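Late entry, evening session. Most of the bench is empty. Finally got around to the prediction I had been postponing all week. Sequence below, unchanged from the version circulated by S.P.
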Amino acid sequence: MKNRSVNSPLVQSVAGFLAALVIGALVPRTFTFLVRRIFTRTVREVLVVVAATWLTERLAHWIVSPELDENE
């Protein structure tokens, strides 16, 4: 059996193929995990800010004009 050097085309092809297998197997899962985690955190934070803003506006409205709510 011939001794293959690291620079031979066969060794580079096999190494590239193995690297593509590892990257193809790990990157999509990691990418979707990170995107899902970032997306859910962002949506949660946006919903909290929207809810806090809405509650603050309603509270300010009730404090400033309580007589309007009694007449409605």
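Two things to note before I forget:
Helices lie at 9-64, 66-71.
Residues 55 and 61 are 10 Å apart (CA to CA).
Will write this up properly tomorrow.
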